[in-house]
Write a structure and sequence with these properties.
The chain has 335 residues and is of the alpha/beta class. The protein has 3 domains: 98 residues, Ubiquitin-like (UB roll) (Roll), CATH 3.10.20.30; 92 residues, Beta Barrel (Elongation Factor Tu (Ef-tu), domain 3), CATH 2.40.30; 122 residues, Rossmann fold, CATH 3.40.50. Helix content is 16%, strand content 33%. It contains 6 helices and 18 strands. Helix 4 packs parallel to helix 5. It is globular, with a radius of gyration of 21 Å.
């Protein structure tokens, strides 16, 4: 039987992937990969290795005491890595920093395969990466070093983890360091990246989903949709994609393609510019209907600028509606 892919997501946003054998404990597999997860006893007594299983199937060996992990905690998805044997690929949320576990971000290189420019709104950067292909959780990002400088910029993957190339949707910033480089980028040029990073990623789907994207904040949702199509999804998924100007509305054709491939997926686009001729005007909150929140039985994911995050939070409070989970990523373009 083949091994399982285990994502360890640390509280500082660093994610490391390890391979765990079908009868191997997570704690042992991590040590084999030279990652020192928290541990005092390794016998299910102290509870030091307790963390949360965000997704995946697993077995907990009945060789631990209630003081280390209560039945209620186990039902809520908490696990002891010293007693956890995976039955499938899993994602674990580790409640310490990566440096405390004597690990950190990984570095890798990619070569420019294509750069597509969307008017003055955005670039779509596609890279080829040598095998073994670095993996990531859909919704995460990497830091890309801008060639010719010592500075980096952070961009979410718009491609799925299993695609043969990596792609990124990058806001065009006038005189921006990365934007200026992309204007003259050539196929074959190499870029240095570190990651994956971020706690904004798709969790196990157990209830309806609402995706809210602002501008190039669409990128992580394209990655999530790629995974939902590959895995199959029976829950309804609705995305609202809001932009400032008509020309900022990009990659709508990809959303239409996902709507054809994912039966329960629907989306709407809106433009904030009052002079637009777009059929839907205003911000995402103007088109976020209470029924979409399923009386709170919904997971909401939002990626956009800080004012958008605040506006959505205010909207849900005004509606007296608290979703089961609200995951968000704020971003501010760097000049």
């Amino acid at each position: 039987m083949s091994s399982f892919n285990i994502a360890l997501n640390f509280e500082d946003g660093v994610t490391r992937f390890i391979q765990c054998g079908p009868q191997e404990k997570i704690l042992d597999a991590a040590y084999r990969h030279q990652i020192n997860l928290p541990m005092d006893c390794s016998d299910g007594v102290c509870g030091t290795c307790k963390c949360r299983a965000e997704s995946g199937e697993y077995e907990l060996i009945d060789d631990y005491i209630d003081e280390a992990l209560t039945e209620q905690e186990a039902q809520e998805g908490l696990v002891l890595t010293c007693q956890m044997i995976p039955q499938a690929d899993c994602v674990l949320s580790i409640p310490v920093t990566s440096t405390m576990c004597k690990t950190g971000t990984e570095s890798f290189e990619g070569a420019v395969a294509a750069v597509r420019r969307y008017d003055d709104a955005a670039f779509e950067l596609t890279l080829t990466v040598a095998e073994p292909h670095p993996t990531f959780l859909p919704g995460q990002y990497v830091n890309i070093t801008v060639p010719g400088s010592e500075e980096h910029r952070s961009y979410s993957f718009s491609s799925g983890p299993n695609e043969s190339t990596m792609s990124f949707l990058i806001k065009q910033v006038p005189n921006g360091l990365m934007s200026s480089w992309l204007e003259g980028a050539q196929v074959g040029q190499e870029l240095q990246m570190t990651g994956p990073l971020g706690s904004f990623y798709l969790r196990s789907v157990t209830r309806p989903l609402v995706f809210l994207a602002g501008g190039t904040g669409l990128a992580p949702f394209l990655s999530m949709l790629d995974v939902l199509v590959a895995q199959g999804c029976t829950q309804p998924v609705h995305l609202i994609y809001g932009v400032t100007r008509d020309q900022d509305l990009v990659l709508v054709d990809q959303l239409e393609a996902y709507a054809q491939r994912l039966a329960n997926f629907s989306f709407a686009t809106t433009v904030a510019d009052p002079e637009t001729s777009h059929p839907r005007k205003g911000y995402v909150t103007h088109h976020l209907e209470p029924a979409m929140l399923h009386e709170g039985n919904v997971d909401v994911y939002l990626c956009g600028p800080p004012p958008m995050v605040d506006a959505v939070s205010d909207y849900m409070r005004d509606q007296n509606m608290t979703p089961a989970n609200f995951y968000y990523e704020r971003f501010i373009p760097s000049v």
